[in-house]
Amino acid sequence: MPDHQITTNRIKQVKHQLLCLLCMFLFANTCMTAQDANLQADSLKNLLHSQQGKERYRIYQQLDSAYIQLDDFDTRMTNFNEWVEYAHSQKDIEQESNARMVRMAAYTNANRLKDTKTPTWDEDLAFWREHELWDKYASVNVTYLQNLLLVGKMDEALNVAQEQYEFFKKKDLNYGIGAMAHIIGTIYYYQERTEECIDFLRESVQRLKKEKTSVQILEGYRTLSLILAIGGHTEEAEKWLNEWREVLEANFKDNVGAWFNYNINAAYVHMHMGDYGKAEEYIRKCEQMSPQLGDAVLSKYLTYSAWSQLYQLQKDYPNAIKALDSTRVYVENSAVTLEGYLRERAELAWTGGLHDISSEAWRELYFHNDSIQKTKIAAQVDELRTQYEVDKFKAEKKRNRNYFLFALGGCILLFLLLGGTVYYNRMITKKNRGLYRQIKAQDRLAEELEQMRRHYEALSLSQPPTLVETEEINDKTVPLLPGNQQQRELVARLHEYLLRDQNFTKIDINRESLLSALSTNKNALTEAVKAVTGKKPMEYIREMQLEEARRMLDKHPELTVEAVALDCGFNTAHTFYRLFRKQYDISPAEYRKMAGTLEV
Question: 101 near 116, Cβ under 8 Å?
Answer without folding.
Answer: no
